């Protein structure tokens, strides 16, 4: 290790880190090329060839030319995943019906019954029957 100074080690680590970051960016660009709906088949092939044949320049040109739409697609995809997750949670918790509309819970129904009883719209006897029906 005497012939490889510490500064050279740091320099090598920096270049290795930058190379790994560039690989991540390359794969990100390739994934974005394939998931882009506004590009046709030939345009996707052209961008892919440019990114693979001239890797550094091709990725740089793609990020400059299509970086904004790349971010827009990321945000759209994140919102879709979030909505799907929330729908799954509502479905698993049983707080929505088949159409995704919120289902009323027993607590909500009991609160409505108590409000009707307080207003005098239903009698105590009707309230007790409806409450028993809800709780059974």
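^ Assign residues to that structure.
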């Amino acid at each position: 290790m005497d012939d490889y100074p510490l500064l050279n080690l740091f320099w090598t680590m920096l270049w290795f880190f930058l190379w790994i970051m560039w690989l991540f960016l390359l794969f990100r660009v390739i994934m974005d090329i394939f998931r882009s709906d506004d590009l046709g088949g030939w345009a996707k092939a052209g961008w892919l060839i440019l990114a693979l044949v001239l890797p550094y320049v091709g990725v740089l040109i793609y990020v400059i030319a299509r970086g904004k739409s790349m971010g827009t697609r990321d945000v759209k995809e994140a919102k879709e995943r979030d909505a799907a997750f929330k729908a799954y949670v509502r479905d698993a918790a049983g707080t929505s019906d088949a159409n995704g509309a919120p289902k009323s819970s027993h607590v909500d129904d009991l609160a409505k019954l108590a409000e009707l009883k307080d207003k005098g719209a239903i009698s105590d006897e009707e309230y007790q029957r409806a409450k028993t029906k809800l709780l059974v």
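The chain is about 80% helix and 0% strand.
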